[in-house]
Amino acid sequence: MAERSSGIRFDRVSVAYGGGGARTVALDSLDLTVEPGEVMALLGPSGSGKTTALRAVAGFVRPTSGRVLIGERDVTDLPPHKRGIGMVVQQYALFPHMRVEDNVAFGMKAQKVPKGEIPGRVAEALELTGMAAYAKRYPRELSGGQQQRVAIARALAIRPGVLLLDEPLSALDAQLRSGMLAELARLHRELPDVSILYVTHDQVEALTLADRITVMDRARLQDVGTPQDLYRRPRTEFTASFVGNANLLPVTVGSGEKGTVSFGQAELKVPTQDVAAGATATLCVRPHLVGLGDGPNSLTGEVAEVQWRGSTHRLFVDVDGHRVKADLRELREPPALGERVTVHFAPEDAVLLAAGVAEDG
Ligand SMILES: Nc1ncnc2c1ncn2[C@@H]1O[C@H](COP(=O)(O)OP(=O)(O)OP(=O)(O)O)[C@@H](O)[C@H]1O
Ligand SMILES: [Mg+2]
To answer: What are the b/e assignments for 249-279, b being 16+ CB within 10 Å?
Structure first.
C-alpha cells in the first residue's frame, strides 16, 4: 500500500520547550536511523522524550538544532501534511460526528488525493485493519479497540512511507492489547515497506514488535540494538533493568586469574572482557537464569521473600546485604522465609557492565 519506502534519520536533533528559566531540554542531540521498512521501538520511562522525538518527525515540534530526514529528504522545515507520514496516538482522536469511512477519508482530503480514488482507498484501509463491516458507524458505536483500528486505518489511507505510533495500545485493556499487538505485527508483514517508529514504555510491546529498540532516558539515547542484543548483552545498567528484569550486582574485577570477579565473599567466574583488573563494575544476571542449589557460580544467603507468580516462583535471597532474584519453574516446595539457600548461575549467562556507563550514556 505504501507508495514509497523511506527510512527516518535524526541528525543530532535537539528539542527544547519553553523559554527563559523554564526551558526544558526534551530531546538532547538524538542521532538515530530507522531503516526503510524497519520497526523501531522507542522505549523509555515517562518524560524521557519519546513523544517529543515522534513529534519532531511528524513536524509538530521544531528542533532547536539538528535535522530530520525522511528517506533522502530533509523535512525539518516542511509542514506536517507534506511529510508523507501517518500518525496514531493513544487517545484514538477520531472525529465523533463523522462516520468511520469519513474519518478514514479525512487525511486524504487534506492531502488532495483525487476524489475518485478516495472510496477505494478507504475500503482498502478498512479491509487491512479488519474494519470493513463498520464503515457506516460512528466512533461512539465502536469499542476502544475498534476505534484504534479506525485510527490506524486513517493513518494508512494516505499511504505513508512512515508510520508513527505513540503508545497506540495503552488505552486498551491487557487482553485486547495483546490481540492488537498481533494485529500490528500482521499489518507490518502486509506493508513491509513502511517504516514504523513505535513509542511505548511497555517492554513486552517493544520486544514483541520491534526489529530494533532505542532506549531513551532523560532526553537522551541510552542504547540501541535488536531486542535480543539489548536483553542478552545490555551495555548499561539502565538498559539492563529497563529491558527485562535484571540482578545488578556490584563486583570488583579480580587482579589474579582472568575472568573472575569478587562479589562480597564470593569469587565468580564471568566474562570480564575489557574491564580492567581492580575496577568496580556491575554484574547483570537475568533472574530466570539463576537456579537453586550448587553450581558453577554459587551464592549463599537467606530467603527474604517468596512470590508465587503462577508459572514461576520468584525468590529473593539476601546475599551479603544484596538482594538476588531467582525466577524458578517447577519448584514444588519453595524454601521458607529465613532459610539459608544456595543459588547459582552459569558464567556465560552473566554480563559485566563497566561502572559509570549508565551515567555517561
Ligand atoms: N509542550 C510542552 N511544553 C513544555 N514541556 C514539555 C512539553 N511537552 C513535553 N514537555 C516536557 O518534555 C519532556 C519530554 O516529554 P515527552 O512527552 O517527550 O516524554 P515521553 O517520553 O513521551 O513521556 P510519556 O511516557 O509520559 O508519554 C518532559 O519533561 C515533559 O514535561
Ligand atoms: Mg509520550
So the answer is: bebebbeeeeebbebeebebbbebeebeeeb
- How many residues does the structure list for the chain? 361
CB 27 within 8 A of CB 219: yes
Residue closest via CA to ligand 1's atom 12 equals: 26
48 within ligand 1 shell (Cβ under 6 A): yes
Do residues 9 and 33 touch, judged by C-beta distance below 8 A?
A: yes
Tens digits of per-residue pLDDT, 309-360?
Answer: 888 999 999 999 999 999 999 888 899 999 999 999 999 999 999 765 444 3
pTM given for the model: 0.87
Asked if residue 121 lies in contact with residue 129, where contact means CB atoms within 8 angstroms, the answer is no
Which atom from ligand 1 is nearest to the alpha carbon of 54?
18
Residue the block writes with cell 474494519: 131
Secondary structure of residue 43 in the 3-state scheme:
strand
**CB of 24 shorter than 6 A to ligand 1:** yes
Q: How far apart are the first and last CA of the chain?
A: 38
Which residue's CA lies nearest to atom 6 of ligand 1? 17
Residue to probe by mutation, ligand 1, list 15, 17, 30, 198, most atoms within 8 Å of CB: 17
Q: Where are the domains of the chain?
A: 8-237, 250-360
Number of Cβ within a 10 Å radius of residue 79? 9
Place of cell 539515547: 221
Q: Determine whether domain 8-237 maps to CATH 3.40.50.300.
A: yes
Place of cell 526551558: 23
In the sheet with 313-319, reading across from the earlier edge strand, the strands are 291-292, 340-345, 297-308, 313-319, 322-328
Assigned CATH class of 250-360: mainly beta
Q: Look at residues 203, 164, 182 and name the one whose alpha carbon lies nearest to residue 52.
A: 164
Q: Is any atom of ligand 1 closer than 6 Å to the C-beta of 49?
A: yes
Torsion sign over Cα 359, 216, 26, 62: positive
pLDDT digits (tens, 9 = 90+) for 217-242: 999 999 999 999 999 989 899 999 88
pLDDT value at 248 more than 50 = yes
